[in-house]
Amino acid sequence: MDLSQIRQNIDSIDDQIKDLFEKRMNLASEVADYKRQNNMPVLNTKREREIISRVTEGQDDTLAGYTKILYTTLFDLSRSFQNRKLNADSALIGQIRESLQITPNVFPASAVVACQGTEGAYSQLACDKLFSRPNIMYFGSFQGVFGAVEKGMCKYGILPIENSLYGSVTNVYDLMKKYKFHIAKSIKLHINHVLLAKQGVKLSEIKEIYSHEQAIGQCSEFLKDLPNVKITVCENTAVAAKTVADSDRRDVAAISSKNCAELYGLCILSESVQNNDSNYTRFICITKDLEIFPGSSKISLMFTIPHRPGSLYGLISKFSALGVNLTKLESRPIPGKDFEFMFYFDMDASVYSDDVMSLLAELENSPEQFMFLGSYSEL
Questions:
Q1: Which of 116, 112, 122, 106 is nearest to 156 (CA)?
Q2: For the segment 250-302, what is each residue's pLDDT rounded down to a tens digit?
Q3: Which residue among the candidates 118, 243, 281, 304 is catalytic per the annotation?
Q4: Bridge partners of 213?
Q5: Does domain 3-86 have CATH number 3.40.50.720?
Q6: d(CA 279, CA 301)
Q7: Which residue, 356, 378, 376, is CA-closest to 92?
Q8: Are 131 and 137 in contact, with CB atoms under 8 Å apart?
């Protein structure tokens, strides 16, 4: 046969597969009705293993491997189809719909906001871009920010979550597992680090540099040229600048922002000391209650998955089936559980989509731990 004839035969088979797939999914819908009436779970691994064993019997190893992949995908689609029927009623969906009704149409201009560090910190700069009149409360740690929001001391909190040069802020991801919060907004802030010291000090006099570990990582190339200088980690770049300003020593410097030079009366020894000028940090604005403002186009989720082969693939395939673009996937180990992880997902999706809402309901009703972190827009 020539190529055109082969393709015609494939088209004919594809048409048969389509019709058979439709029949199979309709039967899966009937299975869902039966399971609902008899209070049975969707997942039946014994049944799935039996099917794969039957359909691969007599096949060579290569084709059997592809057949298993095909049927595993069919099982994923069938379970998703069944879950959509079974999870029509969901507490999360009700919470989202309520939030869409009661959230104001405009993000607030003024609020009590928790930031980590002190005046001049990048978190404060991000806060000033999100709120035109914020009342900022400073805390010495990221945990303090989470705690202030959870306890109602502050309406909102600002936290760095990832940097374009140095990656994720792992401390924040680890704390996410401990606190109840929602993301109301996010912002990407351009970061321009400078080296600050007391007035009249020269670079050759510097023996110790203070900064936050993320900033130190973002400026690693600059610091390589200062092999005899001690690097000391501080909880914040603004705290580093204040430490230099308050010190009796003249041989110390700080990697911080230009704003801190004026704030703390320091001079700039070196400008743009980061590895790359395309240096951005993404900050999230968290709140205790779910707020979904108009224009929200990103969704963040956090959940565990079963500790078995193919679990992550099966989960990602659900997003792929909807054409949802996953923009972030972060995994963090769960303390006390060997080789088990909490996964954090960001995706470009809208809660106004019925398909997305059905997927969220399916995830909420899964036996694994699941957290809907928020639907929001990013500046």
A1: 112
A2: 999 999 999 999 999 999 999 999 999 899 999 999 999 999 999 999 999 99
A3: 281
A4: none
A5: no
A6: 25
A7: 356
A8: no
Report d(CA 254, CA 3) in Å as an integer: 68
283, 293, 345, 372: the catalytic one is: 283
Q: How are beta strands 167-168 and 252-256 bridged, if at all? A: unpaired
Domain ranges of the chain: 3-86, 92-103+295-379, 107-191+275-291, 195-270
**92-103+295-379 sits in which CATH class?**
alpha beta
Q: pTM of the entire structure?
A: 0.83
343 is catalytic: no
Token pair, residue 312, equals: 């992550």
The 10s digit of each residue's pLDDT in 244-254 is: 999 999 999 99
Is 107-191+275-291 a domain of CATH 3.20.20.80?
no
Only one residue has tokens 């990407």, namely 188
Concerning whether 283 is annotated as a catalytic residue, the answer is yes
Alpha-carbon gap, residue 184 to 130, rounded angstroms: 11
Handedness of CA 103, 104, 107, 109 (dihedral sign): negative
Angle at which helix 91-102 crosses helix 354-364, to 10 degrees, equals: 130
